[in-house]
């Protein structure tokens, strides 16, 4: 797997480097205190920012001291971090403005080969705007305003970092192609008690691996099994039956249910098994909705088809009920199977691999924005109070599930119906299988917006 791009956070003491580091890695890994000099060694962590993934380094505050002193040795560590990084994020205190030490750090950064982004921190509201404007004098490009503590300016930070840390499309595709042959399909079987989950697992494995019987709730723990289907690796998870939470009083059943829900969170594709002799119930829709909310690909399998009555009307009725009950994801595959006889069990695996491929799909930026321009031209966004909402471009920030961000102005006024239009158009025009898609809208903070 290619190494992640690296971002080194640098600056004088007490400008908020560790606070920003903690925000980017999503954990309080670095100690934070009002006193300067808390950080001494380089600390590294895996960061995520609106789908961008990179390695981030928190460095000691840069001080102009003798190399043999402790501050001097700390500075040498900082210099080594910047040399090794793909980009340096130079933090200044936006409220305090430039200091002579900031200017000294800027001279050192300008003399190096590492690209530099200047960020005026502690700029919540417009508090750091004067400091940001002062930072133009450093000669390191246009500064951005952020607040590491309050999470402001994240979109501007994303746009500034993206050219340096976003890997090329072919690198993503190469990485995924290399992983596909040996990467097991993570497949979870879920459903209400006594739907036949363990029987289906046994049929897939070709052996009586799981205990089965007419009693409901035999399976308590989520059991993970590694096997192969037609030479392709599968990590199969059999889970406990999921009843409506209000009906659960037994502590062990509560734990089993929580374990099953964790299995959904770690799966790639989830098979929701229904008992065809009982049809679709409200609890089935609740489970399906949870799977979709977690961003997992979903298959509905109607089990016990060999003993179902009025099969054709039952199948059509279930499909209609799913279209109404799961309006956020239409077209979920529905298969009629029999775990007991083996009917259509192979079809479940084939559809699961196909869905996993679509769930992992990355669309090239060019293709995505050609579609986006056409979709916006065909149906422009509304103009609330006569003020145009301008959508500039779209980018895919991650896969599994496919996740997209649209950048534009006044996107907070965009109605949900327009978001649904874009998602439906994307599925249709880009031929995306019925897997969950995530779409959000971002607008860079404009300090003059409040003055209009």
Automatic annotation (TrEMBL):
Keyword Hydrolase found: yes
Keyword Ribonucleoprotein: no
Molecular function as annotated in GO: hydrolase activity
Binding site for GTP 1: 11-18, 58-62, 121-124
InterPro entries in the cross-refs: AAA+_ATPase, G_ENGA, GTP-bd, GTPase_Der, KH_dom-like, KH_dom-like_a/b, P-loop_NTPase, Small_GTP-bd
Residues holding GTP 2: 191-198, 238-242, 303-306
Residues annotated as domain EngA-type G: 5-169, 185-360
Function noted in UniProt: GTPase that plays an essential role in the late steps of ribosome biogenesis.
Subunit structure: Associates with the 50S ribosomal subunit.
Protein name stated in the entry: GTPase Der
């Amino acid at each position: 797997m290619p190494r992640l791009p690296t971002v080194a956070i640098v600056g004088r003491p007490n400008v908020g480097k560790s606070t920003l580091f903690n925000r980017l890695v999503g954990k309080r890994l670095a100690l934070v205190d009002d006193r300067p000099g808390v950080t001494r060694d380089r600390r590294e962590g895996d960061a995520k920012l609106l789908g961008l993934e990179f390695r981030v380094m928190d460095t000691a505050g840069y001080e102009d001291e003798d190399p043999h002193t402790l501050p001097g040795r700390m500075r040498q560590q900082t210099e080594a971090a910047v040399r090794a990084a793909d980009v340096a994020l130079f933090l200044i205190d936006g409220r305090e403005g430039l200091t002579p030490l900031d200017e000294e750090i800027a001279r050192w950064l300008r003399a190096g080969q590492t690209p530099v982004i200047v960020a005026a921190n502690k700029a919540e509201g417009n508090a750091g705007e004067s400091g940001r404007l002062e930072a133009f004098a450093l000669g390191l490009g246009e500064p951005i305003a952020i607040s590491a503590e309050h999470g402001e300016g994240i979109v501007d930070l994303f746009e500034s970092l993206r050219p340096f840390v976003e890997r090329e499309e072919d690198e993503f595709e190469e990485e995924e192609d290399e992983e596909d042959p040996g990467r097991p399909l993570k497949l979870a079987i879920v459903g209400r008690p006594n739907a036949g989950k363990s029987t289906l697992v046994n049929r897939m494995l070709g052996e009586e691996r799981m205990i089965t019987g007419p009693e409901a709730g035999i399976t308590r723990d989520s059991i993970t099994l590694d096997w192969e289907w037609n030479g392709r690796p599968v990590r199969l998870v059999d889970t406990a039956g999921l009843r409506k939470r209000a009906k659960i009083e037994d502590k062990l059943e509560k734990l089993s249910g929580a374990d099953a829900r964790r299995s959904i969170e770690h799966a790639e594709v989830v098979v929701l098994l229904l008992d065809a002799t009982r049809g679709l119930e409200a609890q089935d829709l609740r489970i399906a909705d949870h799977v979709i909310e977690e961003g997992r690909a979903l298959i509905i399998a109607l089990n016990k088809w060999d003993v179902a009555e009025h099969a054709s009307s039952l199948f059509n009725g279930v499909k209609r009920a799913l279209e109404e009950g799961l309006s956020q994801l239409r077209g979920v595959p529905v298969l009629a199977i029999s775990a007991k006889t083996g009917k259509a069990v192979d079809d479940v695996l084939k559809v699961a691999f196909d869905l996993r491929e679509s769930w992992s799909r990355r669309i090239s930026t060019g293709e995505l924005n050609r579609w986006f321009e056409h979709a916006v031209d065909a149906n422009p966004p509304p103009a609330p109070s006569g003020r145009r909402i301008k959508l500039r471009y779209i980018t895919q920030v991650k896969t599994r599930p496919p996740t997209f961000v649209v950048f534009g102005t006044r996107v907070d006024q965009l109605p949900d119906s327009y978001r649904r239009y874009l998602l439906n158009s994307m599925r249709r025009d880009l031929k995306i299988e019925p897997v969950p898609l995530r779409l959000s809208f971002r607008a860079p903070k404009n300090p003059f917006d409040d003055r209009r």
